[in-house]
């Protein structure tokens, strides 16, 4: 039998087959992942298949209706077809019970994005079983225009792209470059998710091994709070590419071995050498740029570049900062040490997945970044904007002489506050100390289910989202005056936003000592830091 073609830009480091103990460690990993509720039941997976079949039928009907409205004969409109593709964790085969299905609708050339938003929501409501579609939210103006909804309780992220074909064959493939012809940058972005996931899968030697290892890495990264592209950590695609690269280097290895090698290789990686799964391709399109640190100054600044394989190759980790790189490297080291112990039988998998201690035993000082609005709709947009800018504040903080590390928590916290007077509204927006101390000074925090519509009893609800940055001070740091950085972020970035509305939105940044952290950032069983006892004189 001919040796399989080499996957990856360098030959494997080892083609050794797994030993018995590698296999039993892998089985133990799968058992632990099951205990941690990482796999979905086959009945629930079957439900996903049914939903996707329905979305395929709705897509075909959508294309047909648009073309008929354009005056095409019914026969041609019906034959034009349309096809759905998936990307994200569903496509990679590493989804769990709570995962969404990231889905792309591909239509023929005469069907446009405007048609997608004009027709698809109505068709969903008409063609899906009664009551199956809920929380339907079209977001046409986002970076990637999207229709979000739940279908039979499964979250769907639906995006759209057309290609330069008048008929979509049932076996259409988006690999290669043929389908990129005539697309603008925005359209390319929509095809990109599917193209990247499909290509990653073709570049790993054993898909099942890759999936098991990636499930392990994703769970580890989530528990350690280093999973979130928007906050300066790798996202799902970046973690997948790192694992895929290790799979290429150990093509015959079992999942447990991949995890051990993952930590050892990534910990010692000589950044900014990029992680890439194949050579970067150049395409025939002069208007499309691919990642190239020799050519582009911006690309040279990437600290831990992980490059997507599908043309046009891009850096999936351009958000990583000096601080988050340090945090990631510490976690890789911790993970590597635990992995060695697991493989040598000295500890168990669950130790790798122990939750982070960002709040419990993290920092003495935190910054709380609070975005607030007086309506839920306004807050959705405002908090999304502020979240996408938190990394800029991290950059300002990193440039401050007294700060060694500005460590963001990977998720924001959403809260609601009932206010009984204008004064309380202002307080809830501007000073959130009441979360910690006295609820009555700036509106009560609303518990789930305790909500009354605005207006009753003269109440206003204030919606807030808060992100936390832990501050590690430089050696010998004395002053922690961050007013310049904070003001620049507030006034020059957040409040300069073209949609900023003084009557609806507010932004505030406050210093928070560990003992002043609100209780809801702690989970059951976690002990909140307490105020040090005052020394008696
Ligand atoms: P889950 O199992 O769904 O939690 P996932 O890896 O599928 O994990 P997402 O559904 O959040 O994660 O994202 C799937 C892909 O969608 C990843 C990325 O290519 C794209 N994506 C997600 N969020 C954004 C965003 N804000 N902007 C651009 N692309 C995004
Ligand atoms: Mn997803
Ligand atoms: Mn998604």
From TrEMBL:
Positions of the Poly(A) polymerase nucleotidyltransferase domain: 8-204
Entry annotated with the keyword Transcription regulation: no
Residue numbers binding Mg(2+) 1: 100, 102
Poly(A) polymerase RNA-binding domain span: 357-530
One GO term of the biological process aspect: mRNA processing
Cell location: Nucleus
Annotated residues for binding of Mg(2+) 2: 100, 102, 157
Cofactor note: Binds 2 magnesium ions. Also active with manganese.
SUPFAM superfamilies assigned to the protein according to its UniProt record, in alphabetical order: Nucleotidyltransferase, PAP/Archaeal CCA-adding enzyme, C-terminal domain, PAP/OAS1 substrate-binding domain
Keywords: ATP-binding, Magnesium, Manganese, Metal-binding, mRNA processing, Nucleotide-binding, Nucleus, RNA-binding, Transferase
UniProt cofactor(s): Mn(2+); Mg(2+)
Amino acids binding ATP: 100-102, 157, 218, 227, 236-237
Enzyme Commission identifier(s): 2.7.7.19
An annotated GO cellular component: nucleus
Uppermost EC category: transferase
Catalytic activity: RNA(n) + ATP = RNA(n)-3'-adenine ribonucleotide + diphosphate
Pfam family, any one: PAP_central
Chief place where the protein resides: nucleus
MF-aspect GO terms: ATP binding; metal ion binding; poly(A) RNA polymerase activity; RNA binding
Family membership noted in the UniProt record: Belongs to the poly(A) polymerase family.
Function: Polymerase that creates the 3'-poly(A) tail of mRNA's.
Protein name: Poly(A) polymerase
Naturally occurring in which organism (per UniProt): Amylocarpus encephaloides
């Amino acid at each position: 039998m001919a040796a399989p073609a080499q996957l990856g830009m360098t030959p494997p480091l080892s083609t050794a087959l797994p030993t018995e103990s590698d296999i039993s460690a892998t089985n133990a990993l799968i058992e632990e992942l099951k205990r941690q509720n990482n796999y979905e039941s086959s009945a629930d997976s079957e439900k996903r298949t049914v939903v996707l079949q329905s979305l395929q039928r709705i897509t075909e009907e959508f294309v047909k209706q648009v073309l008929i409205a354009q005056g095409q004969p019914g026969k041609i409109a019906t034959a034009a077809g349309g096809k759905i593709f998936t990307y994200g964790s569903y496509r990679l085969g590493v989804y769990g019970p709570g995962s969404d299905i990231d889905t792309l609708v591909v239509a023929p050339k005469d069907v446009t994005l405007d048609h997608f938003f004009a027709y698809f929501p109505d068709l969903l409501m008409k063609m899906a079983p009664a009551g199956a579609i809920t929380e339907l939210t079209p977001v046409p103006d986002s970076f990637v225009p999207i229709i979000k909804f739940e279908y039979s309780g499964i979250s769907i992220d639906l995006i759209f792209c057309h290609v330069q074909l008048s008929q979509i064959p049932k076996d259409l493939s988006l690999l290669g470059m043929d389908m990129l012809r005539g697309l603008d940058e925005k359209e390319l972005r929509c095809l990109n998710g599917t193209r990247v996931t499909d290509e990653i899968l073709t570049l790993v030697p054993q898909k099942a091994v890759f999936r098991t290892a990636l499930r392990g890495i994703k769970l580890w990264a989530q528990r350690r709070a280093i999973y979130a592209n928007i906050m300066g950590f790798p996202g799902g695609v970046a973690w997948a590419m790192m694992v895929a690269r290790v799979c290429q280097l150990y093509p015959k290895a079992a999942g447990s071995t991949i995890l051990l090698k993952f930590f050892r290789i990534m910990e010692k990686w000589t950044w900014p050498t990029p992680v890439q799964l194949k050579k970067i391709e150049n395409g025939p399109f002069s208007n499309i740029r691919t990642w190239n640190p020799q050519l582009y100054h911006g690309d040279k600044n990437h600290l831990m570049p992980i490059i997507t394989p599908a043309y046009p190759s891009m850096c999936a980790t351009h958000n990583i900062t000096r601080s988050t790189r340090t945090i990631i490297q510490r976690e890789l080291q911790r993970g590597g040490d635990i992995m060695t112990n697991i493989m040598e039988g000295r500890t168990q998998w669950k130790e790798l997945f122990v939750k982070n201690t960002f709040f419990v035993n993290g920092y003495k000082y935190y910054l709380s970044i609070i975005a607030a609005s007086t309506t839920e709709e306004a807050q959705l947009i405002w908090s999304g904007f502020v979240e996408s800018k938190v990394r800029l504040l991290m950059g300002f903080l990193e440039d401050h002489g007294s700060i060694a590390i500005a460590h963001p928590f990977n998720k924001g916290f959403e809260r609601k506050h009932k206010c009984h007077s204008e004064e309380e509204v202002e307080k809830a927006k501007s000073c959130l100390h009441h979360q910690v101390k006295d609820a009555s000074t700036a509106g009560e925090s609303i518990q789930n289910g305790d909500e009354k519509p605005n207006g009753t009893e003269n109440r206003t609800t204030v919606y807030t989202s808060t992100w936390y940055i832990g501050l590690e001070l430089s050696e010998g740091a004395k002053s922690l005056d961050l007013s310049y950085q904070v003001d620049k972020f507030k006034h020059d970035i957040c409040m300069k936003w073209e949609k900023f509305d003084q009557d609806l939105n507010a932004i505030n940044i406050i210093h928070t000592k560990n003992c002043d952290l609100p209780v809801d950032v702690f989970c059951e069983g976690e002990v909140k830091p307490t105020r040090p006892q005052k020394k008696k004189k």
